[in-house]
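Session log. Operator J.P. requested a structure for one protein chain; no other inputs attached. Running the standard single-chain path with token output.
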Amino acid sequence: MKQLFFALFLFSFVVFSNAQSSKEQQYNKNVILKVYVDSDAKIFMDGKIVNEDKLKRSLKRILRKKGFVYYSRSFKGSNTKVKSSKILTLIADYKLPVQFYTDNSFSEVADW
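Structure written below.
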């Protein structure tokens, strides 16, 4: 569990540092992709179940539109940690800014 929190912290630090380091980058706060990984390790994107390929295509679209990713996951289920790590790595690969949430309704911002 400590490793997961450290990975999330490091990931968010790298993403936000990268986003803030370039004054040329302007992000559109109106373009948001909501990604949630449930306890069965299913990926939900904007409320619909998707596979990793569809998520990759959407991340590319969000990158082109200079949008944000809202990310949350269930903290139950053993497969969730593995899937969550894969998804966070994908998001990091696209260097998109991420806002972490603690629930699947994206109403409670994570404040760790």
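Operator note: The chain has one domain: 2-100.
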